[in-house]
Amino acid sequence: MDNTQIWLKDWASAIGIALSDNQLEQFEAYYRLLIEWNEKMNLTGITERSAVYEKHFYDSLTVSTVADLSGSVSLADIGSGAGFPSIPLKIAFPRIRVTIVDSLAKRIRFLEEVISSLGLAEVTCLHGRAEDVARLPEHRDRHDVATARAVARLAGLNELCLPFVKPGGIFVAMKGSDIAEELEEGRFSIEKLNAAVHQTKRLELPNERSERHLIVMAKKGPTPKAYPRKAGIPLKTPLLRNAIRL
């Protein structure tokens, strides 16, 4: 075990996660695949090993500070990209059931390779637009937790993610430092989608000290039939108070 792995183990321990040697090896295998595939396609601009461990792996694990992932929880990761936060969370919490939705087929192929190489069970990768997948009965109002990291502003993002969450479940939006304006802008869409802001949690990365926020939205009832709108509309014309809505 090298210093980077020791750091991750210590960082995880500080937020209540005990990583085994096998789990640390899974993170290392994930890192190697990420770098290998990144040479062929654009998965991440962060490639330095310690930065990947901190800004991708540890950052993903912080979702567990606001979501109970201790049991057989169903988690939907929307616009997962290179697998953040769902793959690090699956490594750390092997019992969770993960559905990854991404619109780029090449990223799905990468994620399927990661899942196979790491021996991860109960992870489903879906190639499609979130607006379309959220209309499928097996995913609409079905998941305990939905996550999204660096996908879009909340006003549009809520419409992509909240339809996946069952009443009583939560959507965790992973954001950077400046959230006040975005949160205020997104309140109308939160209300329209039968949810409410449950918590906003401020965090700092352990080495870099850059600021992060987790915005937690609680689903109060089923998704209204009108949502999500057709693919492309939520981000192009987000639900805003006093806006013309399609």
Spell out the blueprint of helices and strands.
Layout: H1 3-14, H2 21-38, H3 49-61, E1 74-78, H4 86-92, E2 97-102, H5 105-118, E3 123-127, H6 130-133, E4 143-149, H7 154-161, E5 165-175, H8 180-192, E6 195-204, E7 211-219, H9 233-236
Helix pairs in contact: 1-3, 2-5, 3-4, 7-8
Give a verbal description of the structure:
This protein is an alpha/beta fold. It has 9 helices and 7 strands, in the order H-H-H-E-H-E-H-E-H-E-H-E-H-E-E-H. Helix 7 (154-161) packs parallel to helix 8 (180-192). It is globular and about 55 Å long.
Question: Would you kindly provide a brief summary of this structure?
Answer:
By secondary structure, the protein is an alpha/beta fold. The chain is built from nine helices and seven strands.
List keywords for this structure.
alpha/beta; 9 helices; 7 strands; 38% helix; single chain
**Helix segment count?**
9
What Rg do the Cα atoms give?
A: 17 Å
> Topology as H/E string?
HHHEHEHEHEHEHEEH
Strand content: 15-25%
| First-to-last CA distance | 54 Å
Percentage of helical residues? 25-40%
What strand line-up does the widest sheet have? 3-2-1-4-5-7-6
Overall SS class: alpha/beta
Strand runs, count:
7
**Could you report the average pLDDT, rounded to the nearest whole number?**
95
Biggest sheet: strands, sense, closure? 7 strands, mixed
Described by the principal axes of the CA atoms, the overall outline is globular
Instruction: State the low-pLDDT regions, or none.
Output: none
